[in-house]
Automatic annotation (TrEMBL), chains A, B:
Organism from which the protein derives: Methylobacterium komagatae
Pfam families: Bac_luciferase
GO molecular function list: oxidoreductase activity
Protein name as catalogued: LLM class flavin-dependent oxidoreductase
Group of enzyme by EC: oxidoreductase
Domain Luciferase-like positions: 33-382
InterPro entries reported in the protein's UniProt record: Diverse_substr_monoxygenases, Luciferase-like_dom, Luciferase-like_sf, NTA_MOA
CDD domains attached to this UniProt entry: Nitrilotriacetate_monoxgenase
PANTHER family: ALKANESULFONATE MONOOXYGENASE-RELATED, C2H2 FINGER DOMAIN TRANSCRIPTION FACTOR (EUROFUNG)-RELATED
Assigned keywords, A-Z: Flavoprotein, FMN, Monooxygenase, Oxidoreductase
Length: 445, 445
């Protein structure tokens, strides 16, 4: 195996990406709060040699929970438990820069990196939901640009805290009694527009140097944040052309920040519905779709578009014009509208194409067809890999691992086994140099 | 086995309570950042049928890390990993009300309670350290009374969030498609002096109803907070009389808050140095003490007293008078001064009695002598059990479990096995009723 390699991450969406996944005979409705479910999925991912599992998150109830499961549990707590039950698969948790303290967040992820022996990743989000704001003393969500200005400072600050211990600061020499070389532990003394943080972190530098930073930069601000700070990006693209254009744009921006164009691993979302024949896959999609109540899908679409559901007519196209609302999740909004306009879909057909309101691309087919699709995107430079969203969990992932992964391996596109121990190793990312090494103010200065 | 039963918690102080514990031949210096160490200690505690393990915490470096290990890792991350590797032992994590958002904290502990299937506890602290303040945008620590006013509102608010889902709100009925009965999920709409939080929590009600609330109320404010909100208390007492007086005081206060006097489980700190003979135990203590650099002990004592180390003369008593500084940890300050005055100790002898600056009571002796001490405190009403601080970990705990626990079991004071599955079961605490059951505003209202 040689040459450029695919990266595969699985989005651990409780019962699966379809809102109806929990209603299938093989699903357990309480999977969303059952740690055994998360461990089971992680072990399947590890058996398939996947790069990582990923948990999305919002610190609020922002979906129709009367109809479907949601991200209930705090992701770092879940992934710490999963770390103890796995050995290689990466563990990526979402955490908001708008509703966390940088010191606490840096510490929690550095701790997860130590507990998992170098498998932690942080997915940086700014959290557009008004419901989240109301859980943290605000009347609603803060404005898009303000969220991203704060996010940039927050992310830089967290990276500095992750460098606050040099690699060899911990000594632990019994005979001399020297425990830590405090000349190699550094205050960061950050004083910025939004945060003032002294440091150092309480956590020695983690196995990966820094946990891997993920971002899902869709908007202009989001792309800039990703280009400046991220190691890997969860993107949204419905066509190879859109995917390739996004990748070119992001790499150009990264170069402007003095980074090599391949510094970023770009992973478009990919929902999968797999059958042993094309007809079986279509039947599976029909079954999943028929179990989604239309009022749920409509409410979710209206939420994505930030409009009144009454403005949506099932048998007509989306309202036109449809300006981007300031408080929308840009990625989801633009992806949804682009899909509807391109294929001139009625709302009813759009809902089905969205799989009940997801927004990411859905491929329905045989393992061979899905491998072909993945290979085409990969070879066209539209993706370095994918953020997989199986229709149903764990079954949809098990099918992917048992039927699609071997095809990708035979084609020389995907690893036969893990070559390294850390998530950075899996993603082919270098261990970052420590900004304070051989310089800087120390704790003892 | 019947009658009133002892409760035993172990304070998982990385390498042990002695600052020199990491330097013994059997210790691993990197235990403080090695998850396998935490798992090993937890499994020994579980083999001994102990109620819980406990992690102290400060979100800052506030000790002389050039000399000794410290609480590096974030406790909920550590305990989630430990949860996956154990089945019965309780898991108590410290988290600060001054430097966390209530919504995030409530969510993290509710998640830990689900992940551990009902074994989570939250030790409420207000964090007196100035170094912590500087990691969160403050010039130093906030004032004692202000911290406690905030802590009371914070704790009440967290308890309300833990009630925001009624026990039977989750439905998960595949045939009807009803996932959650949103009439049983409640906004809390808290608007207080310090916090405004809408709720509900994203987490269904946890196995314990609410994670167990611990407190270490030493000061007047701390005792009031514990009496009003805590299920269990970590206390500091050097004599049976002091322990009994503290217990009486706290139970009297609890009654004033309309609670039964036995609503609180009171657990004084108890450091143990165990030998198969009295002489062997003394030798072990000498060995541990001789490895503590005197400049470390002096610096730590000066830190507890919030005075310049130059004011401490090794061969004289503590300075007199020594007023309580506003930014001190009251429990540690008062315990230390009381010990020095009562036994008229020079600073040198005080340091040794403190075991290098701990402040909690140290018992040195045979398993039989330690069991006698525990029984005497328990029967005198000075303790419902203890927060054990073994000299060295895991060895000191292993000796306790193998040699002291069987004596306590033979005397009918301690369980032969766990009778229940949750930490509340172990502690004999009732599952709290949900404040919203059969009433209140729901999410769908």
């Amino acid at each position: 195996m040689s040459g450029r390699q695919l990266h595969l991450n699985v989005n651990l969406l409780h019962s699966g990406v379809y809102p109806s996944a929990w209603r299938l005979p093989e699903s357990r409705p309480d999977a969303f709060i059952d740690i055994d479910h998360f461990v089971r999925v992680a072990r399947i991912a590890e058996r398939g040699k996947l790069d990582a599992i990923f948990l999305a998150d919002t610190p609020a109830i922002n979906d129709r929970i009367d109809y479907r499961p949601f991200n209930a549990l705090e992701p770092t707590v879940v992934l710490a438990a999963v770390a103890a039950a796995t050995s290689h698969v990466g563990l990526v948790a979402t955490a908001s820069t708008t509703y966390n303290e940088p010191y606490n967040l840096a510490r929690r992820f550095a701790s997860l990196d130590l507990v998992s022996r170098g498998r932690a990743g942080w997915n940086v989000v700014t959290t557009a939901d008004a419901a989240a704001g109301r859980n943290f003393g605000f009347a609603g969500a803060s404005e898009h640009g303000a969220r991203y200005a704060r996010a940039r400072e927050f992310t830089d600050l967290v990276h500095a805290l992750w460098d606050s211990w040099e690699d060899d600061a911990f000594v632990g020499d019994k005979s001399s009694g020297r425990f830590v070389d405090t000349a190699k532990v550094h205050a960061i003394d950050h004083r910025g527009a939004h945060y003032t943080v002294a440091g150092p972190l309480t956590v020695p530098r983690s196995p990966q140097g820094r946990p891997v930073t993920f971002q899902a930069g869709g908007s202009e601000d989001g792309r800039e944040l990703a280009a400046a700070t991220a190691d890997a990006v969860f993107s949204l693209a419905q066509t190879i052309e859109d995917g390739a254009a996004y990748a070119r744009d992001l790499r150009t921006r990264a170069v402007r920040y003095g980074r090599p164009p391949d510094a970023l691993v770009i992973l478009p979302g990919l929902a999968t519905v797999i059958g042993s024949t094309e007809a079986e896959a279509q039947r599976r999609q029909d079954e999943l779709w028929d179990l989604v109540p239309v009022e749920y899908s409509l409410a979710r679409l209206a939420g994505t578009l930030r409009i009144d559901p009454a403005r949506l007519d099932l048998d007509k196209p989306l309202p036109d014009p449809l300006p981007l609302p300031p408080d929308a999740n840009h990625t989801m909004f633009l992806g949804t509208v682009a899909l509807a306009r391109r294929d001139k879909l009625t709302v009813r057909r759009l809902l089905r194409a969205l799989g009940g309101g997801v927004g990411h691309r859905i491929v329905v087919g045989t393992p061979e067809a899905i491998a072909d699709d993945i290979e085409a995107w990969f070879r066209a430079g539209a993706a370095d890999g994918f953020n997989l969203m199986p229709d149903v969990l764990p079954d949809g992932l098990e099918t992917f691992v048992d039927a699609v992964v071997p095809i990708l391996q035979r084609r020389g596109l995907f690893r036969q086994d893990y070559a390294g121990a850390t998530l950075r190793d899996h993603l082919g990312l270098a261990r970052p140099a420590n900004r304070y090494a051989a310089t800087g103010r120390s704790l003892s200065a």
